[in-house]
Amino acid sequence: MTAPPATENAALKPPLHVLMAGPRGFCAGVDRAIKIVEQAIQKFGAPVYVRHEIVHNKFVVETLETQGAIFVEELDEVPPDAPVVFSAHGVPKSVPAEARRRNMLYLDATCPLVSKVHREAERHQAAGRHILLIGHEGHPEVIGTMGQLPEGTATLVETVEDAEAVQPPEGALAFTTQTTLSVDDTAEIVATLQRRFPHLVGPGKEDICYATTNRQAAVKEIAARSELVVVVGAPNSSNSVRLREVAERAGCPRAVMVQRGRDLDPALADGVSVLGLTAGASAPEVLVDEVLDRLRERFTVTTEEVVVAVEDITFRVPPMQRPGR
Ligand code: SF4
């Protein structure tokens, strides 16, 4: 039997309707952090060192590497005369202090919304309040926020169970949160803490940023209508992992995360008529396009944008001067 011509093959592809979450992908903090590295390379020449992945996305990291960025985990891996950029997740105070001590040229790409949490935590501490930091142990943002405070002045709370069990020191109490948590889980943790500690001081709601909140609202919307949700993101990207969890909890039978198009087995969508597609705040749109192309190999794809919020936030890139000197 001879194979049907290509056009006929295309016509035989089953239909797949893709709901595109809006907003999805890059947030203002990620966009700013990437621009800081790019502009540092232009201004100071390659190589520019970056302490930790500038944002949690392999594609972004590899693209910047081709432009002349070198990623390291600690300052002592950076030659004394080379410029170094701190990642969007924020760093403990000890890091810029060490960079200054070594007379290094550094640029801080910490997202302004993470810096805001740092300042908030410092204010609580200065007012004599012990801080309950809601977040995930080991995440760089949590390490950075803890690192704004003297040892022993903050306690990490990861779950509702932790909130039930935590025994902070006597006296005034406050809470702050990581910016990329699940909105629903965090509300439950905060409610538990407020019940146990009625005088707990905190932000109006929590510190979860606009980008995390909007992406979770959008994925909820598409998940309720989809048989499968695909999240473009990295396993170490907190906000991307949360999107997959939120999709499942919103009633979608299956939600998977892929880093890019080639990681997706399009056969996963066999028998699916409506698929939801979104991307974490550190995943560029080009990777969403890759996933669509991958699906087109097997299906006749139609797309529909499902927009729950329009974002117009941008953060200014700081002047490329030598702040560390
Ligand atoms: S996810 Fe939120 S806190 Fe993190 S970089 Fe983006 S805007 Fe900033």
Distance between the termini: 74 Å
Q: Runs with pLDDT <50, length 5+?
A: none
What composes the largest sheet? Answer: 5 strands, parallel
Ligands bound here? iron/sulfur cluster
Task: Report the helical percentage.
Answer: 25-40%
List the strand order in the largest sheet. 10-9-11-1-12
Name the structural class.
alpha/beta
- Described by the principal axes of the CA atoms, the overall outline is flat
What's the helix-strand series? HEHEHEEHEHEHEHEHHEHEEHE
Radius of gyration: 22 Å
Number of helices: 11
Mean pLDDT: 94
Sheet-strand content, in percent, reads 15-25%
Would you spell out the secondary-structure blueprint of this structure?
Blueprint: H1 6-12, E1 15-22, H2 28-44, E2 48-51, H3 58-67, E3 69-72, E4 84-86, H4 94-101, E5 106-108, H5 112-126, E6 130-134, H6 140-146, E7 154-157, H7 160-165, E8 173-177, H8 183-196, H9 210-223, E9 228-232, H10 238-249, E10 255-258, E11 274-279, H11 285-296, E12 300-307
Parallel strand pairs: 1-11, 1-12, 2-3, 2-4, 4-5, 6-7, 6-8, 9-10, 9-11
Helix pairs in contact: 9-10
The structure holds iron/sulfur cluster (SF4).
The site of iron/sulfur cluster has 15 residues, from helix 2, helix 5 and helix 9.
